[in-house]
Amino acid sequence: MAAATPQVKAPARVFLVAAEASGDRLGAALIGALRAKLPGIDVAGVGGTAMLAAGMDSIVPIDGLGLMGFASIPRRLPTIFRRIREVSEAVIRMRPDVLVIIDSPDFTHRVARRVRARDTSIPIVDYVSPQVWAWRPGRAKTMSRYIDHVMALLPFEPEVHRELGGPPCSYVGHPLLGEVGALRPNADEARRRQTDPAVLLVLPGSRRSEIRRHMDIFGATLAKLRDSGVAFEAVVPTLPHLADLVRERSRSWSVTPRFAVGEQARLAATRIARAALSKSGTSTLELALAGVPLIGAYRVSGWEAFIARRVARVPTVILANLVLGDNVVPEFLQEDCTPDKLAPALADILADGPVRQRQLEAFGRLDGLMATKDDSPSVTAARIVLATMRR
User: Fold this and answer.
1) Less CB within 10 Å around the terminal CB: N or C of the chain?
2) How many domains, the chain?
3) Given this model, what pLDDT does residue 178 score?
4) Chain-centre distance of CA 107, in angstroms?
């Protein structure tokens, strides 16, 4: 009798879906960690330049998918819903061993629900928890119907999912933890932080809508701060594709800023900054990890604020405050986001007084609160993804 022909096991297959630049960076690091653990793994899906450079086979282009909630993009809805159908169909055709959706829940969760409805055998992992702790807590329980595991970036999120009846959730660590060395000053940079004029970072946002809403307010704030007798050097970090818009919006400022364009310039400016005026978001946690006292500010349209106030479940939207469990960073939202309120608050954190010292002491606790085991966030995430595979 002839010997049976040995079967060749097909490589493990992972399908990744990212719709924004931040998710693209997370996806690229995850791909690298997956390939380090399982060199023959087959990775395909939707992503940007970072994920493609990491070796992902692109199934559907990411073009036009960068979004921040459906409310701000009504004209793009037909395109986005078409992309949701295309991506879902691509997943069903490939039948991967695991589907990993990355952030952008308005897009990625719609894909996940369609896939789960069509093929319950495909495990689904969500990398970056939606902010169920801030609003729409019912999403957590709903997610348990189509998400098999959540990989959280913030240390308090697993407990939130347990309390709300969400899917199994593990804290893998925030990607900012890998940038701490690049965010904190060396001896020369630390001396510059204490040298006058103080470097004041001004971060209006990384989206065009944020820049348009904040630039005039922030410019007027700097003028009021200068007129009060505070000396400073304003530095505006921005991304290359937004630099022209930021420069155009700053032409009306009476204070002339310096621009730090690109990642390396932003990090260099952060290392010498004494304080910052920042829009709410991930930048507040980055500044806190860098040891830069700050105030947070944000404005949205009136009707968006009306809705947010009725669904919000947290006393702050500043990520550093949420991780610390203490509102050490003052925030100025909507009608409080005015030069008359922002300028005095900035003066307080530029001066070597109790307000500044309280923030610095609180920020010193972040390393311990956000620490993970020896593995990096992407390595921990890769281990969970591989453990969730159906094979």
Assistant:
1) N
2) 2
3) 87
4) 16
**C-alpha to C-alpha distance for 269 and 20, rounded to whole angstroms:** 25
Only one residue has tokens 């830069």, namely 292
- If asked whether residues 168 and 248 sit together in one domain, one would say no
Segments forming the whole domain that contains residue 310: 180-369
Q: Note whether 60 and 194 are same-domain residues.
A: no
Q: Scanning the structure block, which residue is given the tokens 């990384």? A: 206
The per-residue pLDDT for 63 is 56
Structure-block tokens of residue 29: 């690091």
pLDDT at 134: 79
Distance between CA atoms of residues 282 and 366, nearest Å: 14
Look at residue 262 and tell me whether its pLDDT is greater than 80.
yes
Residue 204 token pair: 């209006």
Same domain, 69 and 103: yes
pLDDT tens-digit map of 43-85:
999 998 899 999 998 887 665 555 444 344 566 677 778 889 9
d(Cα 37, Cα 381) in Å, to the nearest integer?
11
Give the predicted TM-score (pTM) of the model.
Answer: 0.85
* CB-based contact 24:12 (threshold 8 Å): no
Tokens of 46: 């939707």
- Assigned domain for 316 exists: yes
Q: Residue 4 domain-assigned?
A: no
Contact predicate 333/248, CB 8 Å = no
191 shares a domain with 74: no
Does residue 1 sit within a domain?
Answer: no
Torsion sign over Cα 120, 160, 177, 315: positive
Specify if 5 maps to a domain: no
What's 217's DSSP letter?
Answer: H
The answer on 363 and 281 residing in a single domain is yes
CATH number at residue 266: 3.40.50.2000
Confidence of residue 307 (pLDDT cuts 50, 70, 90): very low
User: Using CA atoms, how far apart are residues 380 and 391, in angstroms rounded to an integer?
Assistant: 19
Q: List, for residues 116-168, the tens digit of each pLDDT value.
A: 999 999 999 999 999 888 778 889 999 999 999 999 999 999 999 999 999 99
Q: Which of 389, 379, 385 is nearest to 32 (CA)?
A: 379
Query: 265: which 2 tokens?
Result: 């310039």
